[in-house]
Amino acid sequence: xxxxxxxxxxxxxxxxxxxxxxxxxxxxxxxxxxxxxxxxxxxxxxxxxxxxxxxxxxxxxxxxxxxxxxxxxxxxxxxxxxxxxxxxxxxxxxxxxxxxxxxxxxxxxxxxxxxxxxxxxxxxxxxxxxxxxxxxxxxxxxxxxxxxxxxxxxxxxxxxxxxxxxxxxxxxxxxxxxxxxxxxxxxxxxxxxxxxxxxxxxxxxxxxxxxxxxxxxxxxxxxxxxxxxxxxxxxxxxxxxxxxxxxxxxxxxxxxxxxxxxxxxxxxxxxxxxxxxxxxxxxxxxxxxxxxxxxxxxxxxxxxxxxxxxxxxxxxxxxxxxxxxxxxxxxxxxxxxxxxxxxxxxxxxxxxxxxxxxxxxxxxxxxxxxxxxxxxxxxxxxxxxxxxxxxxxxxxxxxxxxxxxxxxxxxxxxxxxxxxxxxxxxxxxxxxxxxxxxxxxxxxxxxxxxxxxxxxxxxxxxxxxxxxxxxxxxxxxxxxxxxxxxxxxxxxxxxxxxxxxxxxxxxxxxxxxxxxxxxxxxxxxxxxxxxxxxxxxxxxxxxxxxxxxxxxxxxxxxxxxxxxxxxxxxxxxxxxxxxxxxxxxxxxxxxxxxxxxxxxxxxxxxxxxxxxxxxxxxxxxxxxxxxxxxxxxxxxxxxxxxxxxxxxxxxxxxxxxxxxxxxxxxxxxxxxxxxxxxxxxxxxxxxxxxxxxxxxxxxxxxxxxxxxxxxxxxxxxxxxxxxxxxxxxxxxxxxxxxxxxxxxxxxxxxxxxxxxxxx
Length: 759
Known about the structure:
Elements: H1 6-14, H2 32-38, H3 44-52, H4 57-60, E1 66-71, H5 83-102, E2 105-110, H6 116-126, E3 132-135, H7 142-153, E4 158-160, H8 161-181, E5 190-193, H9 197-209, E6 216-220, E7 223-224, H10 235-238, H11 249-253, E8 258-261, H12 270-273, E9 281-284, H13 294-300, E10 305-308, H14 323-332, H15 340-353, H16 360-365, H17 386-401, H18 412-423, H19 425-439, E11 443-446, H20 452-463, E12 468-472, H21 475-485, E13 493-495, H22 503-514, H23 521-528, H24 531-541, E14 546-549, H25 555-565, E15 576-582, E16 587-591, H26 601-616, E17 624-627, H27 638-653, E18 659-663, H28 665-669, H29 671-677, E19 688-690, H30 694-707, E20 711-718, E21 724-726, H31 733-755
Parallel strand pairs: 1-2, 1-3, 3-4, 5-6, 5-8, 8-9, 9-10, 11-12, 11-14, 12-13, 14-21, 16-19, 17-18, 17-19
Antiparallel strand pairs: 6-7, 15-16, 15-20
Helix pairs in contact: 5-14, 6-7, 8-9, 8-15, 14-17, 15-17, 18-19, 19-31, 20-21, 20-31, 22-23, 22-24, 24-25, 26-27
C-alpha cells in the first residue's frame, strides 16, 4: 500500500461537503403530509407515548442505533494532547467506520474538559440521547476513572475503544499465534512495552484468557513494573507489579514468548529479540511507526510471528475489527454494558473466523492478494464482510448469557438474516432460496471441478447443506488444495470423466441423441469424456439433479452441449436468461438479458411466463411490465405492436398473472408517473421488466447494475427441461454458491411437478 501524502489527506477532507459525515433522514419528507408527520402536529404522538412508557423511545426514535463518539482530545492517535477541536476529524472518521461496517449512526462530540469530573458530568447529561457511548482518545490514567464512573452511572454500554478495542483484537491474534507456535497460553511469558490504557486493558484480557500473572511483565519509560517500585506508579500499574529481579526491557525479554508493543517508534532492536524463546510472537502496535520494523525483526529472528498496527504489513491489529461489531451486538440486545464475557466472545469469534476460507471480495479489496490462516494471516481483514456475521451475534449471545441484555434475541437465525440484509439486500433475497435448498439438497455437478473457486464453493455448499456437490476432477490433482481448504471429502463426490465406469453408457446416450446429426459411436465416446458434455450426460442419465458450468468458458460453449443433450422443457421453444437486480428498498427482475436477440411476440410471452415462475422461487409475487418505447398504444410501430401482442398472449395463457404494457421503462419504475398518467393501468409497482430485445435488456441491466448501485444475481437460465445454469466468467465464490442454491430449488420444483398426479 502506497503512503498517503499530506496534501491528499487535506484535500480529501475539504473537498465538496466539508468533513466526512452528514445527517440523512430515514423517512420521506417530500409533501405537506410528510412534513406534518415528521414534525408538528404528528410528532406529538410519539412524544406522548414515550412520556407514558420511556422504553418506547427505542420504537419511535433512533436511540437504539445511535452511538456517541466522545473525546476531549487529550491523547489523539500518536499526536498527543491536541485538544477537542483538532480531534474532530478523528471522531468523524470513527463515525464513518461505525456506519460503513455495522450500519450504526453516530454523533461525534468533542468536549472541552481536561478534568475528569467535568467530562463525566457532560457525558452523563447527554447520555439519554444515545444507545451507547464510545469514549475515544482520552489520556491515561484519567480514562480509567472516566470509564469506571460512567459505567456506574449509565445503563447503556460505555466503551473506551483505545483500551478494549486493542485488547480484543490483539487477543484474537495472540490465540491464533500461540496455536501456530504450538504453545499453551498458561505457560507463556508475556512482556508489554508500555503501561498506558491499551497495555493495561490488554494485560487484563490476557489474564482472563489464562496468562499467569507471574508470567506477565509491564515495562514503561522507567523500566519493569516490579513489586515495591515507587517511581512513576499509579494504582492501575500497581495491579501488575510482580516479584522479579528484571529491571529493563532487555531483562524482561530474556526467555519471553510474547512481546506486545504499545509505546513508540524504534524502542525495540533486533538484538533484543534474540533472547526470546522459539517462535517469538511480536506485536509492534505503535502507530504510525512500530517499535520495530517487521524487516528488522525477521532479520534477527526468522521464526518470528509478527503483527503491527499498519495496513501495509501482514496481521494488522486494527480496532475497526472490533468496535462496530461489538456495539452492533450490544445495541441489538439493549445491553446495559459491554462486559468481559462480551469482549472475550468478540476476540474468540475473530480468532475462529481467521481459520475460515477467505471470500474473493476480501482478496479483491486488497489488490488480489490471497489469504490463508498462518503466520502471515492471524486475524481477519477489516473488509471481510463476515466479521459482522460472526462478532455481533457472539457479543449478543454473551450479553444474554451474562445477564446484561434487556431485550434478548429469541430467534438467532432471524437475527443473522437481519445482519445479512444490513450487508447486502442481495443476501437477504438469496437467503430465501438458500433456506429452501437446505430443506432438500440435490446433487449438483460442476464440470470445472478442479478450479480453486469451485473447490471453495463446494466446501461451503457441502458444509452448509445447500447441495451435494459432484466435482468432475482428478482427485489426486485437487488433493493438496483440498487438504489446505479442509474439504469435507465425505460430503463431496469426485468423478474423473475419462475413467468413469459410466462413460460408455453416457457415450451410448449421446450417440442416440445425436446420431441424426452425424455423430458416430466413436465420436460420442470421445466427446462424452469432455467435462462440459459429461456433466449434462450425468444429469440426463439421472446421476445428478443439476449442472453448473461456465466459469472458464464462454456462454455459448457452456449452453450448447446442455441444449443438445438435455433440451428445453415441454412446450418451451427457447431458453432465456434472467437477472435479479436488488436495490436497498426494491427488487427487480430483468429478462431476457442473455439469449434471444430478436424475440417475437410469442417468444416475449414465453419469456414473461418463465420469468414469473422463476420469481416465485424468491417468495416474491411477480408483477410484470412489458417494456417498449410506446405507452399503451401511443405508437403503432411494429416493434411496439409486438410487445402489445405479447401482453395479450400472456393474459390469454395466464389470466391470473398481473401483467400490463406495453409501457416505457420510466413509467414502469416510477409509480407516481404511472398513477398520474394511466390511473387505470392494471399493474402497480411492477417488479418484472420484460424487454423487447436482447440489446435493450442487456444494456439496461448492466447500466442499472454499474451506475445505480444495484446488486446483480444471475444469469438464471430459464426453460431447460432439467436444471442447467451458466456462471459468468470469473465470478466470485459467493456467486457460485448462489447459483447452486438456485439450481437446487429449480430441481426441487421440476421433481415436484414430475410427481404430481395426472388425470
